[in-house]
Amino acid sequence: MEHYEPPADGGAGAHDASAYDLCDHCGQVVLGEELLGALVPDSSAVHASDPALDGRRVITACSAEHLAALVDEYRGRPFVPEEQWAAKVCRALADYEEPVPLAVVAALSGLSEHQAQQGVDWHNARAREWRAQYGDPDAPGEYGDPDGPGAGPGD
Ligand SMILES: [Zn+2]
Asked: Are 24 and 74 in contact (CB under 8 A)?
């Protein structure tokens, strides 16, 4: 393709961002060197490039108290495998604009076809819930689900 995009610089302030972070509990800006961090299980999290780090989220806090509160909060959250598979599928498909066969989806996301299908189903169920709540047919797309809604409200 003739369309070439130079590597994104992130714009102004992108470099300073690494020096500061926010406390995930109270939102306070904390200097990077004073920041406390922990790795917690989170089925909605996938690492941008390293699948070995999938399913874990780095949380940051301003103090030991807030870190403990956050760890507690995540500990109370159920780890949903389907959510994790859905996140892996979404990451794998981020570079694709055309529909991708399930076998390819599975290979790309490092899952079995069964897991990939479960992930797709989970994603589609969320998309359906979203539409049910907000009623927008153009809302988050489903990955080719044959059981359409049929006769919807209004014509
Ligand atoms: Zn805090």
From this structure: no
Cut 0.70: pTM above it: no
Q: Count of CB atoms within 10 A of residue 38's CB?
A: 16
Coil, helix or strand for 115? Answer: helix
Distance 58 CA to ligand 1 centre (A): 15
pLDDT score, position 13:
43
- CA 144 to centroid of ligand 1, rounded, Å: 43
DSSP state at residue 137: T
Between the CA of 24 and the centroid of ligand 1 the distance, in Å, is: 7
Helix (H) or strand (E) holding 48: none
DSSP 19: G
Report the pLDDT averaged over residues 112-124.
Answer: 96
Confidence of residue 18 (pLDDT cuts 50, 70, 90): low
